[in-house]
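Subgroup meeting minutes
Present: P.N., E.W., G.H.
Scribe: E.W.

1. P.N. recapped why we're keeping a running log of single-chain structure predictions: easier to compare across weeks, and new members can see raw inputs and outputs side by side.
2. G.H. added today's entry (129 aa).
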Amino acid sequence: MITGKILYYIACLKKLPWDETVPEEIKKPWSKWVKSIKSCKSVIIPRSVAHGKDSDIIIHGFSDASKSAISVAVNVTSLDKEAVQDQHLLVAKSRIAPKDAAIPRLELIGAHMLSRILNHVMKYYQITQ
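Output recorded in log:
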């Protein structure tokens, strides 16, 4: 999804009138992105976290940043008697990076996004540290 967000952001920066044709530098990557989405018939993301009352849950959070985007993801691993039972993507979020921000600042923004999402997940699942 971040590819579409970036292309839309670039188009908005150009301040084109609504009835003007989009420049080729945006049109080609946009068409390629739309085609790649159409080739994926369906996406299934299971949200089941644990299958039994005796399952332990381990949460891993990841964040990354570049000059163009910031992304975070939270993965959940369910353990049943010390054996991995399931691993799933629970939450993912991305956003366009602010203009002219240094990479360390962008990484800090990503860490802040991740901490807010992890707090929400822990509160929802009533997880204590």
